[in-house]
Predict the 3D structure of the following.
Amino acid sequence: MAPFLRMQGITKRFPGVVANRDVDLEVDRGEIRGLLGENGAGKSTLVKILYGLFHPDEGTIEIDGKPVRIRSPRHAVDLGIGMVHQHFMLVPTMTVAENVALGLRENHSPFSRLPAVARRVRELSQRYGLDVDPDDLVEDLSVGLQQRVEILKLLYRGAELLVLDEPTAVLTPQEWHELAQTLRDLADHGKAVIFISHKLDEQLEASDWCTVLRDGAVVGTVHTDDVDKADLARMMVGRDVVLRVARESLPPGEPVIEVSSLRLESKDGRTVLDDVSFEIREREILGVAGIDGNGQRELVEVIAGVHQPSSGTIRVCGRDEPRLTPQRFHRHGGAIIPEDRHRTGVALDLTITDNLMLKDFRRLPFARRGITAVSPIREHCEHLVAEFDVRTPGTSVIMRQLSGGNQQRSVVARELCGEPTLLIAAQPTRGLDVGAMEFVYDRLLDHRKRGGATLLVSTELDEILSLSDRIAVIVGGRFVRILDPDDADDETLGLLMGGAEIAPG
Ligand SMILES: Nc1ncnc2c1ncn2[C@@H]1O[C@H](COP(=O)(O)OP(=O)(O)OP(=O)(O)O)[C@@H](O)[C@H]1O
Ligand SMILES: [Mg+2]
């Protein structure tokens, strides 16, 4: 019998890049297929072809043994192909059932059929163990549950193959295990699943088979029972990857930032940051561990001068800063790798050069008496692209055309190249492949060695544990504990992050 999906000889070219080269991929019902590969290897392109967003230049696609030409996402849905997007496409103020009904085609007024939709949603939710109530408002749901609503939407529309492109960046570890279980339940019920993730643990836990791409071509397909993390890393990068970092002990220097009793209230009077105090000295990395949404974003924005705190004081390099602004933060030698690169990190419609120069285009040697100096800019950008290994045909390419991980690499390049005194690194390796992750860790440690201070905000406990000199656990906008990394492990941090009361010591 033919597999559900058979892609053969798929080639897709963009100007200056072959994103997919002669790719063969077969995925059968009941199977979870992992896709793995470096940033820019062609994973997203391949699944976008499947979803009708791009057309291949060469190659054929068969669904259930029948050749198809997938014209559009709508056509893909008709063929039983569903895609869970990284940014959810849900209307927060509507219920689950209303969201599922939205955009249904078979009737003119889907809402008149809401009770029927709700019934079917409840049925599907039960069959696949999704535990979603059709009458709940989407805005009241956790991120993990919202993702399940996205999956329900696909199941409702008859998806036989579900494609998830980096679905786990926004999930807590608990939510990830639940998603892995959901994927398994889907496969057990005969669905096919394609799962893209850079996290090797996740591939080993969730996928049955893993197909590795490099430079657009398939390097190989392995059964996840037969390999370990090091094998997968070697297949994707073509060399051994050191997955552990060696942080040498360095004596801390002068305080770079001193924060005391910081409070921030939201417009509706909620306390978002509550009595936060800390200092970071030269050659120190303060790691902030916490579940997403516990005030990390607001803390970063206050330190970077985007928001004024409601009360509390901030001293930078020994001087009081009663009104910190982004300009003053920058002038003090502050740099920031923001968490949400699409909102604040990059300008998607500008070129790579424009993005790399965003902060520096007015200063020497890039501008002289207000006139832009073209060749220093070109040399600087070409140097950064090479050093930070941004995979692109050239620096005049529009940012939107880079793969997700390569956009992140550009942000890291721009923020680290000026040798900042204070670096805020928020989820600095989100979306990066293991090779790039290793590189960013090295650069953060370089920055530390040069005397820089770092505020590292991350939901990845491994990252926090291996890089930090001290670890602050944030819960509900409060630092509930500041620990020495030697006294911390996954489990302690996990418990503290979840709000457990653990006696210090
Ligand atoms: N619309 C586009 N126009 C031009 N080039 C593109 C476009 N989309 C993707 N590319 C290029 O195709 C290549 C593959 O990109 P793709 O997004 O498929 O990589 P990826 O494996 O998903 O990487 P990542 O892990 O960073 O998400 C990259 O070199 C990228 O720059
Ligand atoms: Mg991608």
